[in-house]
What we know:
The chain is mostly helical. Helices cover 69% and strands 0% of the residues. The chain has helices spanning 2-36, 44-60, 66-86, 90-100, 106-129, 159-177, 183-200, 203-221, 223-227, 230-252, 261-269, 275-278, 305-313, 315-334, 338-353. The N and C termini lie far apart (46 Å). It contains 15 helices and no strands. The chain is globular, with a radius of gyration of 22 Å.
Amino acid sequence: xxxxxxxxxxxxxxxxxxxxxxxxxxxxxxxxxxxxxxxxxxxxxxxxxxxxxxxxxxxxxxxxxxxxxxxxxxxxxxxxxxxxxxxxxxxxxxxxxxxxxxxxxxxxxxxxxxxxxxxxxxxxxxxxxxxxxxxxxxxxxxxxxxxxxxxxxxxxxxxxxxxxxxxxxxxxxxxxxxxxxxxxxxxxxxxxxxxxxxxxxxxxxxxxxxxxxxxxxxxxxxxxxxxxxxxxxxxxxxxxxxxxxxxxxxxxxxxxxxxxxxxxxxxxxxxxxxxxxxxxxxxxxxxxxxxxxxxxxxxxxxxxxxxxxxxxxxxxxxxxxxxxxxxxxxxxxxxxxxxxxxxxxxxxxxxxxxxxxxxxx
Length: 361
């Protein structure tokens, strides 16, 4: 009888933890969707605090082994030092969120992320089309091939943000539903990829969408490639090369007349992503300005994701993130989670030139 009561009590505690986790997750998704809209959310800070407390409640009622507690403690110390040095609380929130994931079906949680985000984007699109909130077309002047062109944004602020959100949803959707996908679904995603480029003129997002879709299709249909090592080793090498390129970009970034000609040519292909690192007071995010745990004065925004990661949060937290990234890719390979590897690889490579994943959200 006592065992039955204890089992019932534990079940209720676990249920309470799951409710707290999904409530926090829904709140975080709502914050992101509101941020994508043209409406200024005056309660964003308070909403972040509530979601943090919900994830903390889940963490407190979850059973961890000694090794797991040590890992959480170590990560918490690093995140805490990052917060004390930079005034940025994202690292602390990330540690608590990841720790609270224990016992949660990650695919179920990702389905929630997919459907809620898709619904939110659809609502923003309808509001913009109805003239209630946001613009249908990007009002920015653009540059290069974008100059003078009409680019779709559907209520999310600009065409680049729209394209990135569609890429993220497509990549996550393939990971979640690839087992049920038929040839027609792959074809429709190909049409979507081309359509996104035609509507937004975002070359970088188009390339990563196309590469992700092709790799996901090949990994899904070819058992030889899926079971081999070439894609895994090549993917990890590509991410390593992208990180090294990011380090060099942070080192060499300057005004055009002070950079080598070949770097200037690459920077123009990348639409100014290298030079934009430097284009702030005191050199912005250049390598010599990086600190071990960030700085409260480092608030500049630029596109290169890994450079922003190390600049905002510091060398030690940034290095920890890179180690964890490669460990996650290795876990995907060990578990033969091919589409999980494609998902991680797509985000990892995109972060080299686009800092969408490095933000307060």
